[in-house]
Amino acid sequence: MDKSYYNPEDLKKFGKVGEFQQELADKFFSYYGEVFKDGELSAREKALIALAVAHTVQCPYCIDAYTVGSLEKGATEGQMMEAVHVATAIRGGASLVHGVQMMNKVKEVSM
Amino acid sequence: MKSLKARNEPIANFSHQIDILEESKEVENIPKFSDKLNVIGLNPLKPTGLEIFQVNVGKMCNQTCEHCHVDAGPDRKEIMTRETMQQCLEVLKDSSFDIVDLTGGAPEMNPHFRWFVEEIRKLGKHVMVRCNLTIILANPKYNDLPEFFRKHKIEVVSSLPFYNPDRTDRQRGKGVFSKSVEALKMLNRVGYGKEGTGLILNLVYNPSGAFLPASQQQLESDFKRVLKKDHDIEFNNLFAITNLPISRFLDYLIKSDNYENYMEKLANAFNPSAAMGVMCRNTLSIGWDGYIFDCDFNQMLDLKVDAPTSQHISNFDTDELLNRNIVTGNHCYGCTAGAGSSCGGTTT
Question: pTM higher than 0.90, yes or no?
């Protein structure tokens, strides 16, 4: 039994998740491949978005994959860190904006 | 930093590198490169012609780059003699080779470099020099290289791993980026990279670590935009090259625990179209001591051409070399990954 929930080697096995349900896995990977192709957003922009989202959902597999993916799309370290800050700002902002609800409630129950 | 050879590192030994590439546990899970070629009907790999004559005129260099597949540096004393150069000229004289690609080390450090260039040009061959840029500023005797290149209409091919100092200096040494910028400006001043001059200045990008290069076209566009905006530098084309797991880059992969993943990445990215266009099919590589190889990478692994009577420039048999089987190994995955990789950039 593994002593850890996350094993870096498991990322290499991602493509084998179809073992228990092939049809849905095939549809997922086909869709996934299409999503990351150059479109109205470049493949580099999509890799940076994926990197930011990976930090938001805190998926270590995704962080590893899209760190390398961003480098392989020609992103700079500065661009990658700015993407992480965008995720951080939205996560922080999502908490802070609820402060308005707190303020509303305070005002509702206070004289 | 000293070369691996000067430090007596075991990995400086050719056969040790081949063992790591072919027999180590880290490559157990990838198919042999020759098996991959078999599947697409390319094994044995055969030449398509003899067009590019690449000469490594010596391993001496003013830099000691972290990724260097030559293990070049100031402490390397292997230098091609004038006699061997003369043998190269004899072969070139009546050959089908159109292009002569001079590399090193820093080829300009060979004392016979300028004479050799002049003699090759007299034969009407196109000459490319792989200039590391900083050599132009390394010593006053090299300051006139841009003018020498211009006079002889040499194509200049220069490594610049990235358009910012951080990544460039991590790979090529502290201060290399700023010196490279200065050298590029000197080349621009004599007309290199400028429209209408016919003086070609190409840059070479290679990843600063264990990952594959981005799209060559995209990188070229980024490099042109940033180098123009930040430094008013112009150049013609960018070649995106994949790092091959040889010598110092292999040493880096092993010491950083990236070797197994990198080999898997290369093997998984095997592209049959790139395999069709590998540079060894129309190139020969001549070592500093006159031995002949299928490419500069095989040269650094001491894998001589499979042509028993034509292994040295003094016994050059065109027919035998045209009919040889090209020597391959797992390091060749570096040239067939993704968009492919060669000394002239992508191959697909």
Answer: yes
Please judge whether B211 and A68 are an interchain contact, meaning their C-beta atoms are less than 8 angstroms apart: yes
User: Phi then psi for B204, rounded to 5 degrees?
Assistant: -120, 125
Interface test with A, best of B170, B224, B261 (most A CBs within 10 A): B261
Q: What is the C-alpha to C-alpha distance for residues B305 and B54, in angstroms, rounded to an integer?
A: 14
Among B164, B170, B218, B346, most A C-beta atoms within 10 A, so best to mutate, is B218
> pLDDT tens for residues B300-337?
999 999 999 999 999 999 999 999 999 999 999 999 99
Residue of chain A nearest B216, judged by CA positions: A74
Q: Tell me whether A71 touches chain B (CB under 8 Å).
A: yes
- Provide the residue count of chain B: 348
Domain count, chain A: 1
- Output the domain CATH number for residue A103: 1.20.1290.10
Domain with B289 in it: 10-336
Q: Does B161 touch chain A (CB under 8 A)?
A: no
**Among candidates A44, A71, A76 on the partner chain, residue whose Cβ is nearest the Cβ of B211:** A71
B331 within 8 A of B260, measured Cβ to Cβ: no
Task: Please write the tens of the pLDDT for every residue from B107-156.
Answer: 999 999 999 999 999 999 999 999 999 999 999 999 999 999 999 999 99
**CA torsion angle B18 B23 B27 B29 (round to 10):** 150
Nearest CA to B328 out of B35, B40, B30 is that of B35
Which domain CATH number covers B105?
3.20.20
